[in-house]
Specification:
By secondary structure, this protein is mainly alpha-helical. The protein has nine helices and no strands. It starts with a helix and ends in a 6-residue tail after the last helix.
Length: 214
């Protein structure tokens, strides 16, 4: 029975992790693909830091029996939404350093890269903020998970979360640094990432019912 119970703990923790981190993985991988290669590890590290913050916050809330209102938690969606809108606004401010000259293929590609780098978050802070901003579902799932209590349960959660985060980070770096992904993001990243961030922010707030507070 103990083995069965431990297996259930692992299964529940794994389901909670996967269900709440698919969106973070996709968004962060897209950010990595659209940023300079030397920024890839910083963005991925930011994602890890954001995830750790959410886990610690959920554990602390569970320990003091504090309950976050879903509508209030949904306000986190304003973070990716703000970053996304800022990126779209930034696209209007892009300028070619040789404006007025012939638009050669090389200059067009360089212009697209410059626009993408301006619109796409490409720092440790950006990776962390986006992860926390999309973390409303993480908090909703992790707080009850930590409240179950018991050493075996907490051990299962820690093991699953550590292994899961290692896997997610590896997927983010491998996918985001893949030549084909970077080629696509060079063409689309300037618009795709800000739009994706806006969608994530709106979805987080819609699911939480946050718009009724605004």
């Amino acid at each position: 029975m103990a083995v069965t119970g431990l297996g259930a703990d692992f299964g529940i923790a794994a389901a909670a992790f996967v269900g709440t981190n698919i969106d973070n993985c996709v968004v962060t991988m897209t950010m990595v693909a659209g940023a300079p290669l030397d920024r890839a590890r910083r963005i991925a590290a930011g994602q890890v830091a954001g995830f750790v913050f959410l886990v610690v916050l959920a554990a602390a809330a569970a320990a003091v029996l504090f309950e976050f209102s879903p509508k209030v938690v949904g306000l986190l969606g304003l973070v990716p939404l703000t970053i996304g809108v800022r990126g779209l606004v930034g696209l209007r401010q892009r300028s070619d350093p040789e404006e007025g000259g012939p638009r050669t293929g090389a200059r067009r590609r360089r212009g697209r890269r410059t626009a993408a780098e301006r619109a796409v978050g490409r720092s440790f802070t950006a990776g962390a903020l986006v992860t926390v901003g999309a973390g409303g579902d993480n908090l909703a799932a992790y707080i009850p998970l930590f409240r179950v209590g018991g050493a075996a349960n907490l051990a299962a959660i820690c093991i699953v979360f550590v292994l899961g985060e290692v896997l997610v980070t590896a997927v983010i770096l491998a996918g985001g640094r893949h030549p084909k992904a970077r080629s696509v993001m060079t063409r689309l990243g300037a618009v795709a990432v800000p739009v994706l961030l806006c969608c994530i922010g709106v979805l987080v707030m819609l699911e939480a019912g946050t718009f009724s507070l605004l």
